[in-house]
Amino acid sequence: MDKTLCPEGKHVIHVYSSGGEPYEPWEKLKPGTPEYEAYKEERAEVLWRALERCIPDVRQRVEFSIIGSPLAHEAFLRRDRGTYGLAWAAGTSAPYAGMLKNILPFPFPNLKTPVSNLLRCGDSCFPGIGTPSAAASGAICANTMNPVGKHIELLKEASQKDPLYKFLDPGVLANLYRPFVEGLTPSSELRVEQTQEKAS
Ligand SMILES: Cc1cc2nc3c(=O)[nH]c(=O)nc-3n(C[C@H](O)[C@H](O)[C@H](O)COP(=O)(O)OP(=O)(O)OC[C@H]3O[C@@H](n4cnc5c(N)ncnc54)[C@H](O)[C@@H]3O)c2cc1C
Description:
Blueprint: H1 24-27, H2 34-52, H3 58-61, H4 70-77, H5 130-145, H6 148-159, H7 173-181, H8 192-199
The chain binds flavin-adenine dinucleotide.
Flavin-adenine dinucleotide (FAD) binds at residues 14, 68, 72-73, 76-77, 122-123, 129-132, 134.
């Protein structure tokens, strides 16, 4: 998708398994030790085998590979026991679950904090895990703070930077929806007092 991620003629492949990896065998291991490296290889074997179903000689062709483990998530993302997934319970720190509170079955923190005009974003907030979601939560914060006219301006500007981003151009659609949402942005929900008044 992004041609700058690897040299011409090469490819990046990301393979991962479900989040059911038990933590107990990992917690006995120390990153950097031969035992840890060996266990990583052992647990990644299933991923290699899955990949070989699409690219049979992938192990011969690979130039660089790296394996992430629950300990990596714990170290780099500060996740309890290496968890990585939806509804990481920050529950009580979410003062208000927004319009989705009656639909979502879990207290997933949104952008609001108990402090007026202080927003949060990142993969522990809605919409969740991974860089695309973390970026989306940043975009939600930015969108919340800015009027829709500014969104449209930025989308147009970004779409002209590189042909790769041309798809971002909102085109004539922007003129259609702008009058409908203009009065709603930036979001009034930004102010916690208002939200609390509504809730009471
Ligand atoms: C091994 C591994 C592989 C992954 N693979 C993928 C993948 O293939 N695809 C994918 O979508 N996601 C992947 N992820 C997940 C992805 O990296 C995270 O979901 C994403 O980086 C979270 O973004 P964030 O901005 O919320 O937090 P982070 O990227 O963790 O950023 C938080 C930043 O805050 C800084 N910080 C922390 N405390 C302080 C402080 N007190 N003061 C100042 N700065 C502070 C940290 O140094 C860090 O730079 C992977 C994660 C790991 C660990």
